[in-house]
Write a structure and sequence with these properties.
With 153 residues, the protein is an all-alpha fold. The chain has one domain. It has 7 helices and no strands. Helix 3 runs antiparallel to helix 6. The longest helix is centred in the last third of the chain and has 30 residues. The protein is globular and about 50 Å long.
Length: 153
Amino acid sequence: MGATRVGDFFFGYVVAAVVVRGLFGGVADRVGPSKVAGYSLLLYGVVTMGAAFLTPSTLVLVGVGLGISHGFIYPALSAAGLSEVPSRGRAAFMGWFACAFNAGNALSALTLGPVADQFGYPIIFLVTGALLFAGVVPLLKGNRRRRTAFGHA
């Protein structure tokens, strides 16, 4: 697309994710991990769909958007899941959580790479963004009785 510096994308991503985790790391504990994960997933879907219209000048903005959403979603999503698991099952949950995360990355590269090769990247970003929206409502309807990551009132 004519960009000569794609490192700006990664710089925006890393700075945004570090700022979110460093300055706003406790938001999920105060607001609720399911709610934070749900709104972060919504932002993640919007930014991912926006990448279908990526230009060299918007590269850093997409990186910042993904950094913000990922900075909030990963810890909030794991906390939301942990809040639903009895203490004796938390280690297994985290193992399966990491497995699902890494399997999703691998499967997306294996399956979406050929689609991008055939139809281009914009369709990949649009479809992936739309799929991300499927998780927003279940997360926002998460267990409202619990206000912290581990179910303490």
